[in-house]
## 1
Amino acid sequence: MDNITDKEKYDNLLESLLEYQRKLHRENRKRIKVGLQCLFWVPLLFMFLMFLTSGEKVIFLILWIVSLFIIACYLICVEYIDFQVQERMREYGDNDSDENDNLIGSDIEALEESIDELLDQIGQKRTENIQRIMEKIEQQKENLHQSDVKQKGDGNE
């Protein structure tokens, strides 16, 4: 009887932990959205203030750059915390949740493979285009040579 109670406690604890992780993940998505909006609006605000005032423009430029670094660090920290929480939850057995993908992207290796394939295709197209251009150049040379021969033949007669 005591084992059943311990198992129920464990299940309840695990479920509450997983629910906390899901809630944190949803909040982190909202934080990322707010951070991305700040990446747009804060520089716009500084640019507006820079043109509105007649003071030193360099100060606003420095504030703009510093604000971008601060917002970027904020976004990186939110993503890192979310990634760490997800890794820990995977250790605890929350593999079936499809909502809990990474905030930035869930399959970076697939993205890398598709980029490699795209670069290979671009290389092939480039090689084909170079060969086609070389063939056209050779054809133009041949046409010029034939027209030169024809002109010389017409001039000798």
## 2
Amino acid sequence: MRQFAFMAALYAQALRAFNPSLPPQDALRYASATIHEADAQALDARLLVALIAVESSWRRDAVSDAGARGLGQLMPATADELGVDPDDALANIHGAAVHLHGLLQHYASAGRSAQYADAIAAYNAGEGAVDRYGGIPPYAETRDYVRRVIGLWRRLAGAPSARAAPGASAASAAAFAAR
């Protein structure tokens, strides 16, 4: 229990680096939910943090031009399919985790590296586009999205990258994600 509380506090700090206006108590609730939902879906919680950071910068009221809503930017049809309220932050985190897990399962035969890239691309552009092109579609937005999510995930996991020094802080990772 103490280890979970410690991890949740660390994740909450990272969420506040992405969204400095996020109240500390909300950051802790979202961090705890993210760790729980990632564990329930057999996901790396840092991947879920990265995906949501790129989607909404951890702003629960984010709405895209296409109509995607909330932290994980769930489209209304996807939220309905998942049975979640996209405007409820904790339900949105649950929906994002379940949706990402489903996409990873869908692309499991692609090989580990392609599996993650294709699933992340499908989260952005839809399964139909990824299936139609046999991988990441040639859309600049989607290619940039995949690069940003994977790059941020690597930095949150402590992996060096071309754009961040080894051991880069969550704050510097958050600044990169905002670019």
